[in-house]
Write a structure and sequence with these properties.
It contains three helices and five strands, in the order H-E-H-E-E-E-E-H. A five-stranded mixed sheet has the order 1-5-2-3-4, covered by helices on one side. Helices cover 19% and strands 19% of the residues. The model has no long low-confidence stretch (mean pLDDT 87). With 149 residues, it is an alpha/beta fold. The chain folds into two domains: 76 residues, 3-Layer(aba) Sandwich (Rossmann fold), CATH 3.40.50; 29 residues, no CATH class.
Length: 149
């Protein structure tokens, strides 16, 4: 479906959320359209030869700038890497008809189990992460870490 949207619009870049599933989808789309993929981008800027992505590497010890040298870049973007900005106008919805091959419909979902909520924010959405381990001397003392969080 993403490839059909790409074929219909011919974008300057394809942006996908940076998650395990998003990275898998991005890699597959990049192979299908004959392009490269950049993962975990934190910023994008226009370049003469295509978009340039800023990435953090090695636990944010280094910042790199990358670009895809051939084709339309497929870029996964880290959650919360850009502030929310209001749009000047509402977007428009364009219908897209997608036809799937027999290979794409060969899988059958037999059940879905929703993820149980722990009441805590999702790790990728958290502004601050507090973790604890053996230093608190057992699970019964983990309340100290929870209070800190």
């Amino acid at each position: 479906a993403l490839q059909a949207a790409y074929d219909a619009v011919s974008p300057a870049a394809v942006l996908v959320p940076s998650s395990a599933e998003g990275k898998e989808i991005a890699a597959r789309v990049a192979v299908r359209i004959g392009s490269g993929v950049i993962t975990d981008a934190t910023d994008l800027e226009a370049g003469e030869q295509g978009p340039i992505a800023t990435q953090s590497a090695f636990a944010a010890s280094f910042t790199t700038k990358s670009r895809v040298s051939r084709g339309t870049p497929v870029i996964t973007v880290k959650p919360n890497s850009a502030p929310v900005e209001s749009a000047p106008a509402a977007g428009t919805v364009e219908a897209l008809t997608v036809a799937f091959s027999g290979q794409a419909t060969g899988t059958k979902v037999t059940a879905r189990t929703p993820r149980e909520s722990t009441g805590r924010p999702d790790l990728t959405e958290a502004a601050i992460v507090v973790s604890g381990g053996r230093g608190v001397n057992g699970a019964e003392n983990f309340t100290v870490i929870e209070a800190l969080a």
